[in-house]
Amino acid sequence: MISFAVDNYRSILHLSTALGPLNVITGPNGSGKSNLYRALRLLAETAQAGVINAIAREGGLQSTYWAGPEDLSRGMRSGRVPVQGGPRQEVVRLRLGFSTETLGYAISLGLPSPSSSAFALDPEIKRECIWAGPFYRPAGVLVDREGPCLKVRAGREWRVVAQHLSGFDSLFDQVGDPTQVPEVLDLRDTIRGWRFYDHFRTDRDAPARQPQLGTRTPVLHHDGHDLAAALQTIREIGNGLGLDEAISDAFPGAHLVVERHDDGRFSLHFHQEGLLRPLSAQELSDGTLRYILWVAALLTPRPPSLMVLNEPETSLHPDLLPALARLIIKASEQAQVWVVTHASRLIAALEAHPDCHSIVLQKALGATAIADQGLLDAPAWYWPDKGR
Fold first, then answer.
1. Is the dihedral of CA 87, 93, 98, 99 positive or negative?
2. Tens of pLDDT along 255-269?
């Protein structure tokens, strides 16, 4: 299972949490659910050659930094003294990290030193570390990148394998020799396997409503355009019975048929009890289409190590949420699942499962925190140095 940590990202000053197979992240509006989700997506971008561009899309590194004081003292938290800043004691860094039982990774990003470059506001990767075990400790570090220099542990010594790494590319993009650094490839493949679903299109012009060229699709695209092909793939090489049960669970008496056209395109037909003809994808309501998209995503024949669902209740009728919860629970048997939601009926259905790990976020003095998390409740987490 995965532990996750964030420092200095938007409303998150410091946060670390351990997660189980099924995790529900909830909290009031403005508590920081979206920031936690975006931080995890940003971490995933490190293995996709996109972390710098992702930060640029958020308005640049400075706009992602925590906007409050460097530290919230006990007096500030209790209200005895006003919230106030002062001279910074440490360099400012955005830090993201995660760990499994066997390997961990952390990245530290900051602004470059003053130079003549026109890209003076481009973030630089100041430090990256990969370590053995569930948390960072110097003796467990396997790969250490500080600025442009990368070194790898070789027994009791360190071996420098690169001295001129680009400051705007992660080590995942610049190191690829499996004989020298197998841990890099292992973690890169792990992160690249994470899946995020948060913006299925269901509008009238949505690609999922249109016939699409059919190719085997074990993983539904994040926008759902290959829905019919993904459903047919589940029927042929996945859990076809589970697909039928998921549709019948939400719409008793209904079933799906994927029609193959002569030109190789696939289209979706929804047979509903009492109707004399099936409904095409163009005729489905937003909620019905979105539920079918979730069926295709969650019954994937190729489960990832981590699947993150952001507000899956969007456009769904409340009566569909228990069926969606049962789908999510089934998916959590093969992949670690995070669900970011504020739908009380979905939360209740998921929390009824004995293995559900519920994380309630709250905000105090502008900082996101996990409600009722004491010092002994947080996982063991230690950051490497921030880097120069």
1. negative
2. 999 999 999 999 999
